[in-house]
Amino acid sequence: MSNKNYTRRQFLHTSTVFMVGTTAMLTGCGGGGSSAGTPVTPPVNPPVNPPVNPPVAGPLKVAKQAKSLVFIMLDGGNDSFNMLVPRTAADYAQYQATRGALSIDKSKLHNLNDVSNQQGKQFGLHPALPKTQKLFNDKKLSFIANVGPMVERVTKAEYRANSKPLPLGLMSHSDQFKHWQTSRPSERLNSGWFGSIADVVQPNKANDDISMNISLAGSNIMQNGVKSREYAITKSGSVGLSVKDNANPALKDLNDVLLKGFNDMLESTSGSSFDKTYVNGVKYSQAQFEKFEEATKTITVDWKGGDSELAQQLEMVAKTIKARAALGMAGQQQTFFVRYIGWDHHSELLKTHNKMLGIVDDALSGFQQALDDLGVADEVVTFTGSDFGRSLTSNGNGTDHGWGGNTLVMGNAVKGGEVFGQYPALNLGDANELDVGGGVLIPTTSTDEVYAELAMWFGAEKATLPKLFPNLGNFYNVTSSDKPLGFIKS
Length: 490
Hints:
The protein has 490 residues and is an alpha/beta fold. It has helices at residues 8-26, 89-99, 130-137, 156-161, 173-182, 193-201, 252-266, 273-296, 309-322, 349-374, 447-458, 465-468, and strands spanning 6-7, 68-75, 84-86, 110-111, 123-125, 141-148, 213-215, 231-232, 243-244, 334-341, 380-386, 405-410, 419-421, 445-446. The strands form three sheets. Strands 2, 6, 7, 8, 10, 11, 12, 13 and 14 form a nine-stranded mixed sheet that branches.
């Protein structure tokens, strides 16, 4: 159901659907994830070792700031070594030999300006990403290489000997989908790090206040906390009921009776706990809808990011960020969860990947331009994730589930034009210390490192980060004066 104004006659037709949809929307977060593909089971995990830097005493601390984090989940497992490709002669030759028929012709890559931190490697982007190339070369976007959920660092020998803990359900969609939202891969949780931050920033949120966690993809794990939950909207805005007094006169009496019945239901004093829960849920959703609709109705965007589902979601994110003050969030944080499904390319990789990367290219460029136009670009960092990287080797017409992969971060606060982390060698077998078989690469950067740096920018106190990411000490010392990766400017 989209965000529209309804006449009383339209209300007659839609009120039942609205109430059922509202009830579904208000249920708690469940474990989502793509069901395509067959999970690959790694060795059984040994007991998890304690972190090098144990979690500190005391609660998570987060300073309130006018900032927004936008997470785009590329659901299914993006083949990201065809997204970011090495183009230095020796490295490209290695890439081409390994990827075979799935490799991208070097002459078709969009060349990136030289980076400062990859031992002289040069890079190009997939042919479908010309606008992303411009964002990179304009220093508004960077890549993070070979990242994935990890419990602690592991070598190929340790992986094969099963002597170090590995993420639960490694290479399965449902588990890796969760791990990217929680960064706690030794556990299967239904709450995520955005939700944990919201528990601190909005500990006493009133029922009619809009949550700082706003989802364009319904219930999700990342934004679910102990007390907090996401506020789900659609690409058209909030979901609710708005009644106008312009119905057909011939139906006015009937519509008045139906409207009175709806209002009487909301004011019901029934002793049934089920009825009270249901009615309170409808009231809660309707109050938030009215507040959200009022805050965003006058905001317009000169949108130039295409008309895809992803583009329309990001356009609504831009409007919502601009409406922060009207939503009662002045000087406070917001998070956004956006989901683009369909990246499990076991077949037709080249054709489908080209189409989907083109949609991402348009949407990212349009979103960053919209933020600039609205005057909020300094306050927003956008980043992507995906279930896992894919195998370097072909299965004939596509690729299979992997582990490490490449992702991106975008925004004025980002140190753009760089590739952070360690871009791996792309050869196979014993010659590659990261290849555990079939071109599945062990990550060299953990999601903990990426998320810790984002959380610091977002206002989280560094010393309390292990409360968000219990395994962080295995990758980063919170007493260090350096950032985990250095992709945030300040």
